[in-house]
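Design review, sub-item: ligand-bound model
Attendees: FS, YL, KQ
YL presented the inputs for the iron/sulfur cluster complex:
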Amino acid sequence: MKKAELIRLKISLDKALEIDEKELAIQIKATGFECKKCARCCRAEFGDNTVVVFPSEIRSICEKAGLSRDDFVKPTPSEDRDSKGKIHTFEWVLKKNSDCIFLKNGLCEIYERRPHICSTYPFYLLDGKLEVSECMGIGGNISNQESLELAALLKKRYITEIKESIDLLEKFKGFTPSGSGSVCVHDSEGEHWIQP
Ligand code: SF4
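KQ shared the predicted structure:
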């Protein structure tokens, strides 16, 4: 099972590395986009504003904001438990005050280091194909250069997501109550046992 999933992910990674950014940019340009700076994607009242963050993104935000991990992330909510009742989950999410904790006066406090999912919203790649989330900016005027830059970011995000899954799976040892703490977060760097 694990071996088959790793093979599937590695095939996806090979395909992701071959994605033609210029073709992707043409699709983005045809869709159209212009950020309205409404911050709806950061706020709770307009839908799910969950932001999953990977270890490299967490480190980058720590450096930028002078924070430690537990100041701004928490384990992804999960009901999965091992034989001793300890919770297991995959990856981390940004903390919220209903809105994202980095949203201040309608602006992102960590804009230069915001996670991939934020810098590429409302676009994402699913099985290598461009998908678009709900957003007021869709259909807006985007230049060829901005389309190319967004395409490059999208490709980078997609490759990062697949590599994260590969590394996570290679280190994953199952839901075993092996650490101290009541919650185990599994990510590309292994197990992190914490006591929330
Ligand atoms: S990190 Fe910044 S861009 Fe991303 S949801 Fe939070 S406030 Fe919005």
